[in-house]
Amino acid sequence: MSDRPIVDARGLHKHFGPLHVLKGVDLVVAERELVFLIGPSGSGKSTLLRCLNRLEEASSGSVVVDGIDLLDRRTDINHARQRIGMVFQSFNLYPHMTALGNVTLALRKVARKSRAEAEAIGLAALERVGLADRAHHTPAQLSGGQQQRVAIARAIALEPRVMLFDEPTSALDPELVGGVLAVMRELRASGMTMVVVSHEMGFARNAADRVLFMDQGTIVEQGPPAQVFGDPREERTRAFISQIQRH
Fold this sequence. Notes:
This protein is an alpha/beta fold and about 250 residues long.
């Protein structure tokens, strides 16, 4: 990991009407770091992720990703988002398009690649997630796990500098989770910077550089996985960890 932060979010507040969801959150992520966000439902984890690529507009604060000030009105957000891949709980694939068609769409429309170049990049991305042989299948012909891997291929095809994962396995049947986590491990091994919201605590323990526990719109505690899971300092963290370990 280099010392230069690739994500530098400071003082993020987010209000939805009277609801104060993020309360002055700071998040700094180094290049090649894997940061895992845990916490109870409604703690602000997904909102924080969505503020990092301006799918949600922060009410106040600053977000700089790879040197680009995302909240500057002059920033071309579509161009900036090519640097920030995002994978959601729902796969958001176009049902009438093949896997390859889904992966190449943004390459052609946003990155302005020729069809031939887009298809070469798209096939390489599908190869990377283990689905080159499914390139011409539609989503209906793929399992949920395969659809999520296509969604990951679509994101990495644009060669982002950082990947955001918002509950990438929570919509999957248990037997399909492993394939998606294997792809995330491969991305991790290749040096991709990743910020992950997930309930996959085993993955967090084994793969994360740093675990952040969020509750009620703030980061309560952060540290290496062994410390946060094994010897949390804060009572709220201890209560959450003991609760999830019972399940």
